[in-house]
């Protein structure tokens, strides 16, 4: 099982709650889930994992580098699997929906602006707060 391998690779013991939570983060077509989202999805799937366990496991995953935590404004912390590809986010202020995007031009300009200030870019985290346009 992929999940078991991922857990061991991250130095975590394979336990049922860890496997289930990792599956939720991997399977859901919503890649960005709060602890409450994960908890609800587990309940709907008939899995008996408490909210406190979900919080604890997500924190362990974060420490182990398996997931990334985002603290977007005006919402709960949201978790996503750390699968390497850099991207930025938009967050809908009405629904809390998280949309991923990547724009080479924005990436290039950020590098350039940082250099113009005499620095070197180490990391960045760009979040656009958006709302659906009425059409
Ligand atoms: Zn993302």
Quickly name the level 1 CATH class of the largest domain: Mainly Alpha
Bound molecules: zinc ion
Low-confidence stretches: none
Number of helices: 5
Question: Biggest β-sheet, characterized?
Answer: 3 strands, antiparallel
Mean pLDDT: 92
CA-based gyration radius = 17 Å
- What's the number of domains? 2
| CATH H-level superfamily of the largest domain | Winged helix-like DNA-binding domain superfamily/Winged helix DNA-binding domain
Helix content: 40-55%
Corresponding CATH architecture of the largest domain: Orthogonal Bundle
> How do the SSEs run, as a string of H and E?
HHEHHEEEEHE
Helix/strand class: alpha+beta
Total strands: 6
Q: Proportion of β residues?
A: 15-25%
CATH topology of the largest domain: Arc Repressor Mutant, subunit A
**Strand line-up across the major sheet:** 1-3-2
Describe this structure in words.
There is one protein chain. By secondary structure, this protein is α+β, with helices and mostly antiparallel strands. The chain has two domains: 2-81, Arc Repressor Mutant, subunit A; 88-130, Ferric-uptake regulator, C-terminal dimerisarion domain (Dna Ligase, domain 1, 2-Layer Sandwich), CATH 3.30.1490. The protein is built from five helices and six strands; from the N terminus they run H-H-E-H-H-E-E-E-E-H-E. The protein has helices at residues 2-9, 16-27, 35-44, 51-63, 104-116, and strands at residues 33-34, 67-70, 78-81, 88-92, 98-101, 127-130. The chain has a three-stranded antiparallel β-sheet with strand order 1-3-2. A hairpin with a 5-residue loop joins strand 4 and strand 5. Helix 3 crosses helix 4 (51-63). The longest helix has 13 residues, at 51-63. The protein is globular. The protein binds zinc ion. The site of zinc ion (ZN) has 6 residues, from loops. Its cofactor is Mn(2+); Fe(2+); Zn(2+). It is found in: Cytoplasm. Homodimer.
């Amino acid at each position: 099982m992929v999940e078991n391998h991922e857990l061991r690779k991250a130095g975590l013991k394979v336990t049922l709650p860890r496997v289930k939570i990792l599956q939720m983060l991997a399977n859901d077509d919503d890649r960005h889930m709060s602890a409450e989202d994960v908890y609800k999805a587990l309940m709907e799937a008939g899995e008996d994992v408490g909210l406190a366990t979900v919080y604890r496991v997500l924190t362990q995953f974060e420490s182990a580098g398996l997931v990334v935590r985002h603290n977007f404004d005006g919402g709960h912390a949201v978790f996503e699997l750390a699968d390497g590809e850099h991207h930025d986010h938009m967050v809908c202020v009405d629904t809390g929906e998280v949309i991923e995007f990547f724009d080479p031009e924005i990436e290039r300009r950020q590098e350039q602006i940082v250099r113009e200030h005499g620095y070197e870019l180490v990391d960045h985290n760009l979040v656009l707060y958006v709302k659906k346009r009425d059409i």
